Amino acid sequence: MTIPLEELRSVLKSQYHASLAMLRETVDRCSDDLWISTKPHNAFWQVAYHTLYFTHLYLQPNLDAFRPWKEHQADVQNPDGIGDEPEPSSTLPLIPNPYSKSQVLDYWSICDEMVDSSVDSLDLLSPESGFFWYKVSKFEHQLISIRHVQHHAAQLADRLRQAASVGTKWVGAQRTR
Q1: DSSP annotation of 79
Q2: What is the DSSP letter of 122?
Q3: pTM as predicted
Q4: 64 within some domain
Q5: Can you give the pLDDT at residue 176?
Q6: Is the CB of residue 24 less than 8 Å from the CB of residue 105?
Q7: How buried is 46 (Cβ within 10 angstroms: 0-12 exposed, 13-18 middle, 19+ buried)?
Q8: Going by C-beta distance under 8 Å and a sequence separation of 6 or more, which residues neighbour residue 133?
Q9: CA-closest candidate to residue 11, choices 127, 112, 116, 110
Q10: Cβ atoms 55, 111 nearer than 8 A
Q11: Which DSSP symbol is given to 6?
């Protein structure tokens, strides 16, 4: 059986929107205290921003096509928001200054709004992801990207449950047509 390419695009868009909806709910339900708490190690805002940064990046055909969000803080060692080991010779801060919940929600809207047109324009049949660090096809790379969103949405949902007994809803599909 052969699945038409347009059906694959429809499924990818649906699952991007569903995963992003679940991420959005965690951001919406996060308290101001939890938003900036560094227990566990990475603050809520960092994980939320990191997730959106890579969603935005991976919805591009390749690294050269990526244009960061207008409020992106690039003059740091780890602009995606998640600090790695600091580079001792760098004078740059390790991570950006905290993004507000409002900023992250604005960025979320941009990412969610770009899903349909981006997925429609990607060459899903390309044997290359467009990113040198991923040696997979473009289609598999999109599945990895959706899994990345879901991974962090679940991580943040667990933080909400642990910190404030706040639950989040499962979103199975968000069909766009």
Answers
A1: T
A2: S
A3: 0.94
A4: yes
A5: 60
A6: yes
A7: buried
A8: none
A9: 116
A10: yes
A11: H
Check residue 128 and give its pLDDT.
Answer: 96
Residues of the chain whose pLDDT is less than 70? 175-177
Dist. CA 131–CA 134, nearest whole Å: 6
CA pair distance 54, 148, nearest whole angstrom: 8
Is-contact 121 61, C-beta < 8 A?
yes
Domain contains 169:
no
CATH number of the domain at 41, please. Answer: 1.20.120.450
Classify each residue of 73-94 as buried b or exposed e, where b means 16 or more C-beta atoms within 10 Å of its C-beta.
Answer: beebbbbbbbbeeeeeeeeeee
Identity of the amino acid at 7: E
Query: What's the chain's length in residues?
Result: 177
- Let me know the angle formed at the C-alpha of 105 by 92 and 143, rounded to the nearest 5 degrees: 85
Torsion of CA 93, 65, 63, 28, to 10 degrees: 60
Contact partners, residue 99, CB within 8 Å, separation at least 6: 45, 49, 71, 81, 107
**Token pair for 18:** 């569903």
From CA 129, how far away is CA 144, in angstroms rounded? Answer: 10
Kindly state whether residue 174 falls inside one of the protein's structural domains: no
The domain total for the chain is 1
